Amino acid sequence: MSKERLYLFDTTLRDGAQTAGVEFSLEDKIAVTRLLEEIGVDYIEGGYPGANVVDDQFFAEKRTRRAVFTAFGMTKRAGRSVANDPGVQAIIASAASANCFVAKAWDHQIRIALGISLEENLKGLRETVAASAAAGREAMVDCEHFFDGYKANPDYALRCIRTALEAGARWVVLCDTNGGTLPSEIDEIVRAVTAEVPGDRLGIHAHDDTGQAVANTLAAVNAGVRQIQGTLNGLGERCGNANLVTIIPTLLLKPAFADRFETGVSAEQLARLTSVSRTFDELLNRAPDRQMPYVGASAFATKAGIHASALAKDPSTYEHVPPETVGNERSVMVSQQAGKSNLLTALKRHGIAIEKDDPRLDKLLKTVKEREARGYSYDGADASFALLAHKVLGTLPDFFAVESYRASVERRHNARGEQVTVTEAVVKIRIDGERLMSVAEGNGPINALDLAMRKDLGKYSDRIEDLELVDFKVRILDGGTGAVTRVLVESRDGSGERWYTIGVSANIIDASFEALYESINYKLLKAAPQAAGGAE
């Protein structure tokens, strides 16, 4: 029996940006897009062209390789044409391949919030969708407050759907905008809608204000919708959105869905889910939720005792799916048994071949666990993991050694009497026994150290000419005067590759320097023939 196709639509870069404390830079948006492509979503909604500088820059060029690059915006304003609406025109003129327009489907909201007639609302919806379709873009509509609208006036809510489809929309998405609808209501309303409209033209957009966004999404799928909207780790305003990191493995691993439906996510991509989830949290500079379903550090954790004994005999006793299917690992808390298969997968990603029974693998696993206990996190710092693996396996070339470094910050008045801050860094390194010293001034100690370390690398200088520091994030792991600081540095080079390195220390400058040092070493490692292939 053939399976029906479900389409995954990610709104992290738009809905997620509305989360308190979250602000995506251009580089963040590019990095998150890359993560989303790793897990095989079908649509990536990148934001709102015309709303701010970052989104304008992001939509200046196509940012996806496989997923449909999608722009979000509102239908045209009442009283003006589509051609004279700058918001609609910014969306249509962007590099996106698809446009998602939000339109109100609740008569109360239309009268109170918009102050227009119900017919004027339909007119704006119709003309906006038609303009997008005429421009050759896949058009879709988010029917805002749909479920409240349907409860209040089902005929009008359905007219909104039909108007969008007749104007050329590929999808119409039913939104539980305030997150207050319950799964039983979702099921009842969606079944009523799909009796009037084909389910393969409908989607679901659920918020988590009752803690049931995932349940509501799955209920809508069961009732007939075929597009699923959500975010990485459930990011979103108020209580968040439907969590795709929970929804995706449920669709792929639970027979109730896996036997009926298929998605664009492969088993290999599913096995990257834990890594992507944790990397995303690292980019946000926040601690991952240890108890998140499927991917949390405690999702497959068991304390020693009868549970651990039962696990040894039959893992399915306490594990509803094998942890490795989502890239996670079993953790028996007394022995912390975990990880060889995960480690081998990570090594393979870096072209390092090693047998499962090689004793060096046990040494690497032990080293990783020891360092993570000290504050390192390699989920979000893959380049640092590659360097550590080569070092433990004995395949890391000795490029250069740092003998010492110093950074000084001075606040003083310049010749015009203006107060200025001057930062200077001195770095001493050794290459093949030769000592080299560089001095540089920068915009703060990190920038100064970065410039000084790269100023003279002797025979390696030409190899790092295109190396660029892109982003820099700091997180305090423990409070108090002895706090441990974790620094994550993002770098890139002329090839377009981006990588992340990590540093941990009680001293923020030392942690930063370690991450910078690792970034340079990774850049050199990429071109080092003696490291190719890793451990043989």
Quick synopsis:
The chain is of the alpha/beta class and 536 residues long. 37% of the residues lie in helices and 21% in strands. The protein has 19 helices and 18 strands.
Topology:
Elements: E1 4-5, E2 7-10, H1 26-38, E3 43-45, H2 53-58, E4 68-74, H3 86-92, E5 98-104, H4 107-114, H5 118-134, E6 138-144, H6 146-152, H7 154-166, E7 171-176, H8 183-194, E8 202-206, H9 213-223, E9 227-230, H10 244-253, H11 255-258, E10 261-262, H12 267-270, H13 273-284, E11 301-302, H14 306-313, E12 331-332, H15 340-349, H16 359-373, H17 382-393, E13 401-413, E14 419-431, E15 434-442, H18 445-455, E16 468-476, E17 485-492, E18 498-505, H19 508-526
Parallel strand pairs: 1-10, 2-3, 2-9, 3-4, 4-5, 5-6, 6-7, 7-8, 8-9, 11-12
Antiparallel strand pairs: 13-14, 14-15, 16-17, 17-18
Helix pairs in contact: 1-13, 5-7, 6-7, 8-9, 16-17, 17-19, 18-19
Keywords for this structure?
536 residues, alpha/beta, TIM Barrel, Double Stranded RNA Binding Domain, 3 domains, eight-stranded parallel barrel, three-stranded antiparallel β-sheet, 18 strands, transferase, branched-chain amino acid biosynthesis, (R)-citramalate synthase activity, EC 2.3.3.21, 2-isopropylmalate_synth_dimer
